[in-house]
Structure formats: structure tokens, C-alpha cells
Amino acid sequence: MQKRLVYDSTHVMRRADELIGAASNRYRITVQVANRAKRRRFEDFDNNDDPSMKPVLRAIIEMSDELTQPEIIGE
Q1: How far apart are CA 60 and CA 64, in angstroms?
Q2: What does each C-alpha distance from 15 to 5, 22, 43, 48, 67 come to in angstroms?
Q3: pLDDT in tens, 19-73
Q4: CB under 8 Å to 28, separation ≥6 — which residues?
Q5: Which of 1, 20, 39, 55 has the fewest CB atoms within 10 Å, counting from its CB?
Q6: Computed over its alpha carbons, how large is the radius of gyration of the chain?
Q7: Dihedrals φ, ψ of 14, to 5°?
Q8: What confidence tier does 16 reach under pLDDT thresholds 50, 70, 90?
């Protein structure tokens, strides 16, 4: 039995809006989200943590968490 994380689309849109609003350059933050999603997709291919959540959604959630909670940044 797998645990599924369900995010409401309005919640994800609000997080994405906060992320874009805090960025100095919309294009750059979009590319960063895409790169994170691409990297996570390949990591998740081996890991299979939560295949129900799309990599882009996971990247948006993670990056917005890092924005609001800078102590969790681990790059």
C-alpha cells in the first residue's frame, strides 16, 4: 500500500505564484523549476518514492518550501 500525497490545484497554483513573485526573473525561476523537475525525474526513476506526483509539481512544492523555510535548503 502506497501513501499518496494529494495537492489541490489551487494550492499548487498559489505556491507557484509565491515562487514567481519572489523571483527577480520569471524566466530564470521557470528554468530552475524545469531543471529541478528533470533531475528529480531521473532520481525518482530509481527510487520510486511517490510516482503519483508529477516531477514539476514536486519541484514547485519543494522550491516554495525552500523559499518560506530557508533552513531546509540542502543544495
Answers
A1: 6
A2: 16, 11, 23, 24, 10
A3: 999 989 999 999 999 999 998 877 766 665 556 778 899 899 999 988 877 655 4
A4: none
A5: 1
A6: 13
A7: -65, -40
A8: very high
